[in-house]
Structures are given as structure tokens and as C-alpha cells.
Amino acid sequence: MACITEHYLNENTLLGVWKIEEDLKTLLEMVQFGPEDKKKFKTFRSTSRKLEFLSVRALLAELKGPESKIVYNKNNKPFIKDGSHFISITHSNKLTAIMLSTRERIGIDLEYMSSNISALSFKFINRKEKITKDRNNKRYHLYLHWCAKEALYKICDKEGISIRRDITIFPFKLEESGDIKGKVHSERINEIFDLHYTRYDNYALVWTKKDYDDKCFKKKKKYSPPAGS
Questions:
Q1: CATH class for domain 108-211?
Q2: How is domain 3-102 classified at the CATH fold level?
Q3: 81, 191 contact by CB (below 8 A)
């Protein structure tokens, strides 16, 4: 077993993290594929992508049992097939994390901090955002911005949102773990979210959750499981 974290954020919402230490054969033995999973798994060419896919299913089975299955809507947003939970998924360099909630919309993202993210920051940092000038902390600060924006992108269904233009992360005190506020403002969405972050080894991890009654959409949308579920 490689589930290294299982944490209830409240009575409705659970966060789990899986460190991928198994080989393909071992993970395949831990997962019960449904028809959709078999079809999707066959499309992957790289071993790393197969391991990520299997680790998500293994972690879900560890948290909620092997009968829990993942399906996707038209925006490739994942849901639990029976409609019992919202789910958000992330993985990077041997680490997988998922959030599950029975009533809260959720978004999570983690990144292994290896690349020269400063060279790419123009793609996701906007003029309203402030990045530390401390060279020792700048990379972590940038990764937290990126993860926070990805988490907000996911919680708002990914539809029609520009990560650079429509999502703004407010200035925050940089620590090992802490809280962030972020705003999503687009044609359909105008809402401020609370986010939480932490560093695990060389990973940045950010998540957000909001009760489903607190709509970020201007027009009220009723939740239902995706087609085919």
C-alpha cells in the first residue's frame, strides 16, 4: 500500500495522496477496471501515464472501495459514476492526489517543482499578481500560483476560463503551509475562493472547496451525473 495521506477536511470532504512505488503489474492487480477504464487505459502509450491512471483508481479504491468508478463530462471533468461524490484529480512525478466530497465543489492541483518555471510565468501570471523577489522562495511562490489557478480552473468546470486573464491570486504570506484567496472573473463566473496550500518534499500542493449552494456561476446550475453514468 502506498497511500501516504488520508485526511478528512470536514465531514463531507476527503483528501488522499498516493506515492507511486508499484510497477504496472502490481497496480493492475489492485484495480478493477470497468468498460470505460479499459477503453481509456488502452489509449496510453507511456508507462508513466499508465502508472498515473492506475494510481488514481487504486487510491479511489483505497478511499471508497473498488466499486467506485470515474466518468468524465464533456469538459473532461471527472465525476464518480453513481453521482455520490464530486472528485478532483491531480498527479505529478510519482505523486497522485484526489479530493472527494458529497456536497462541496472541489479543485486540487500538485506539481513537482523541477522546471524553470520563471521562464514560463508570463503564461499564467497577470499584472495584478505579486511574486516575491527572494530568489530562494520565488520558484515555490510561482508554483503555488500555478497550482492555485489550476485548482480554481477545475472547481469551475474548466469552461471558457483563461488561467492568466480570468484568475487572479491575491497577495499572501509565503510559508510552508497556509491560506490563499483567489478570484475567478469571466463572462459566466464572478467569485472569490479560499484555497489552502502546503509543501510536501519538492511538491507544491493547493486545494479549494466550496459548498455547492455557494454558486460561482451567475446562472444557477443543477448538479446531475454526466451522461452515460
A1: alpha beta
A2: Ribosomal Protein L22; Chain A (3.90.470)
A3: no
For 22-31, which contacts have Cβ atoms below 8 Å and span 24 or more sequence positions?
Answer: 22/51, 22/55, 22/58, 24/50, 24/51, 24/54, 27/51, 27/54, 27/55, 27/58, 28/54, 30/54, 30/58, 30/61, 31/57, 31/58, 31/61, 31/66
- 9-65 residue pLDDT tens: 999 999 999 999 999 999 999 998 888 888 889 999 999 999 999 999 999 999 999
Grid cell of 212 as nine digits: 455547492
Q: Name which of 87, 50, 58, 92 is nearest 70 in CA terms.
A: 87
DSSP-derived 3-state class of residue 61:
helix
Query: What pTM does this model have?
Result: 0.89
Phi, psi of 168 (to 5 degrees): -125, 130
Contact (Cβ atoms closer than 8 angstroms) between residue 88 and residue 155: yes
Domain segments of the chain as ranges: 3-102, 108-211
- Tell me if 3-102 shares its fold with 108-211: yes
3-class state of residue 224 by DSSP? coil
Q: Which residues, given as ranges, of the chain have pLDDT below 70?
A: 1-4, 213-229
Name residue, grid cell 504570506.
173
User: Are the C-beta atoms of 121 and 102 separated by less than 8 Å?
Assistant: no
